[in-house]
Task: inverse folding
């Protein structure tokens, strides 16, 4: 079976045809290359961190270098990989295809957002190669405004600039989903990935301006000594934390909501069933997006925050567990008596559900003020947010990348290798991060390059896991690249899945569809399997 | 979609009011109003931003959907301010 004669990948081969493209699918691939680049830079820092922590003494790098390593790891991974990765890559590729449109509402703005992202990335890379920054990705004041002598301003400007890329992407998705749905695609006929992208876009638009202005205030404070965060001049360092976490906590949901959307798609397709409680899953995305804006104070329980505010933030933080649990229960109920096939995307989806559940439940520990005081700034926190942001977001992203890879490339990857790497990643991830829960509970603080010898066994386990995880991440790079040339031609719908994206050719034509599709039924209508009870 | 064109005098009038408000903020800074210093400065700033949104950004002449988007932004700012002030105003409650 050959590839279709005309598709978006063979519509021009020159550099110009890529760098000036307005095709959402090509822009998605530009983002794919860029975020992968930043992922491996951030990953390289993680490797050195784990190597340093293999022994109790700080014997591989100096304490100053270690500070820069974990800062640049965090900045690269959070702002240049985890936040943009799913919306900018899979969202860009799939939103128009899933709603039956030719492109996003503002194709030029979409290309502009990629250039803005790259410009922000260049600022941050400049900061990196000219000495790095040592404030931690959280830029807490007064260290970032008064004490640090490293490249705070270029890094802050990089994050400020990149924020506009997120805002434009979110704006584009909101307008596209409102205005460009195919005839018959009502709101409750939309695939759940679109609901999650819509909820994510709301956070992009409402939250990103706050982090942009906050990091700009740091730059202004360093240059002009305004005193926003300086108590001696009427400012307050905790004000910075309020502003920072007002965005940066919802940013966790920017990372994980799209993954949840992917998991809904995969679970339905590989269980051959409608998603159980579709409306609840859809609205739980919006509920997470809204509630996520009300909980930021739980990052500041030990920062001098009022105990009354802490109580309110604690209660609100517990509330986020409700829509999150709705999703986990509904995916599980969808699988119940489904006709499950264990292809690679499904392995990632199952992995996501397990890891997200661990990350989410340990989040409840941190919402409880008393326990949070005990484990704040320890490795417990590191383990918790890596279970959400790596175990959740990256497992979902890899699941989605494998699920839609035949649509993106027109070719199938090596299934055996893909299953192997999914297994390696799951094992490597747990070996890396589970010991960190124990380390944190025992009192090992984060951001130290040396530690007492009694913590070494758990740290060695963690470092060993990190090396396994690193191999697991490299394998898909190899077989996905290999499949671009040698993979079996996939056909339009290799998984037999529902959804408009599967009704067009793989890879799709530049205009996505030869005719405007008409939607006549709910999503995920799979033929009923005999003898099964839905 | 047709583009709204307002008479130039509307823009000039708003511009003049904005300049006047800036002058007023400057002059007010010479008077010690006690706790009202910040309130007065922020009050004038809010008034100026409302004028910019209504006339320069054409919100006054826009659809209800645009109003919903604008109000949602202000509401979200309200969340930020309310919960942040909830911290500051209650810090002294525990001795």
Result:
């Amino acid at each position: 079976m050959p590839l279709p004669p005309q598709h978006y990948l063979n519509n021009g081969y020159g550099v110009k045809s890529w760098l000036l493209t307005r095709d959402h699918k090509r822009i998605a691939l530009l983002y794919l290359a860029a975020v992968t680049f930043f992922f491996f830079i951030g990953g390289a820092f993680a490797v050195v961190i784990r190597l340093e922590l293999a022994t109790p003494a700080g014997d591989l790098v100096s304490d100053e270098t270690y500070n820069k390593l974990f800062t640049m790891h965090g900045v690269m991974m959070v702002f240049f990989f985890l936040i943009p990765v799913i919306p900018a890559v899979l969202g860009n590729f799939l939103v128009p295809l899933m709603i039956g449109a030719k492109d996003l509402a503002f194709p030029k703005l979409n290309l502009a957002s990629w250039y803005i992202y790259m410009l922000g990335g260049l600022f941050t890379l400049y900061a990196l190669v000219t000495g790095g920054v040592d404030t931690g990705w959280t830029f807490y004041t007064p260290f970032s405004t008064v004490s640090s002598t490293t490249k705070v301003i270029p890094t802050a400007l990089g994050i400020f600039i990149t924020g506009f890329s997120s805002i434009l992407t979110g704006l584009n998705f909101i307008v596209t989903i409102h205005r460009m749905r195919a005839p018959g695609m009502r709101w409750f006929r939309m695939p759940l990935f679109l609901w999650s992208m819509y909820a994510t876009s709301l956070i992009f638009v409402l939250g990103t301006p706050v982090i942009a202005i906050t990091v700009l205030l740091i730059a202004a404070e360093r240059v002009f000594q305004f005193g926003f965060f300086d108590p001696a001049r009427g400012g307050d360092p905790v004000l910075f934390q309020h502003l920072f976490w007002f965005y940066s906590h919802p940013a966790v949901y920017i990372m994980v909501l799209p993954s949840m959307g992917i998991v809904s798609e995969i679970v339905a397709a590989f269980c051959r069933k409608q998603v159980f409680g579709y409306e609840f899953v859809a609205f739980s995305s919006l509920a997470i997006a809204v509630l996520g804006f009300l909980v930021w104070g739980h990052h500041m329980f030990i920062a001098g925050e009022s105990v009354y505010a802490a109580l309110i933030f604690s209660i609100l933080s517990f509330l986020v567990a409700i829509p999150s649990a709705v999703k986990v229960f509904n995916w599980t109920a969808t699988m119940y008596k489904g006709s499950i096939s264990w292809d690679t995307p499904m392995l990632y989806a199952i992995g996501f559900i397990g890891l997200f559940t661990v990350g989410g439940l340990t989040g409840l520990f941190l919402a409880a003020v008393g326990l949070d005081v005990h484990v704040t700034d320890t490795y417990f926190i590191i383990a918790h947010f890596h279970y959400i942001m790596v175990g959740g977001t990256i497992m979902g992203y890899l699941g989605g990348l494998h699920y839609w890879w035949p649509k993106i490339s027109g070719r199938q990857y090596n299934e055996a290798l893909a299953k192997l790497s999914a297994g390696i990643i799951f094992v490597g991830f747990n070996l890396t991060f589970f010991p960190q829960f124990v380390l944190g509970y025992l009192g090992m603080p984060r951001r130290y390059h040396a530690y007492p010898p009694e913590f070494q066994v758990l740290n060695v386990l963690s470092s060993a896991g990190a090396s396994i995880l690193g191999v697991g991440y490299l394998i898909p790079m190899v077989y996905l690249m290999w499949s671009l040339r040698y993979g079996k031609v996939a056909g339009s719908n290799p998984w037999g899945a529902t959804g408009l994206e599967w009704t067009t050719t793989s890879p799709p034509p530049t205009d996505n569809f030869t005719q405007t599709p008409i939607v006549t039924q709910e999503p995920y209508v799979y033929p009923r399997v005999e003898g099964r009870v839905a | 979609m047709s583009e709204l064109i307002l008479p130039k005098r509307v823009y000039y009038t708003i511009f003049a009011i904005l300049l006047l408000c800036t002058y007023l903020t400057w002059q007010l800074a010479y008077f010690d109003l006690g706790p009202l210093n910040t309130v007065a400065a922020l009050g004038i700033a809010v008034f100026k931003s409302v004028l910019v949104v209504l006339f320069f950004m054409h919100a006054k002449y826009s659809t209800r959907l645009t109003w919903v988007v604008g109000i949602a932004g202000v509401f979200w700012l309200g969340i930020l301010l309310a919960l942040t002030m909830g911290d500051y105003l209650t810090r002294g409650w525990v001795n």
Observations:
- Helices of chain B lie at 8-28, 36-56, 64-90.
- The interface with chain A takes residues 72-73, 76, 79-80, 83-84, 86-91, 93-94 of chain B (CB under 8 Å).
- Chain B has two domains: 1-61, 63-95.
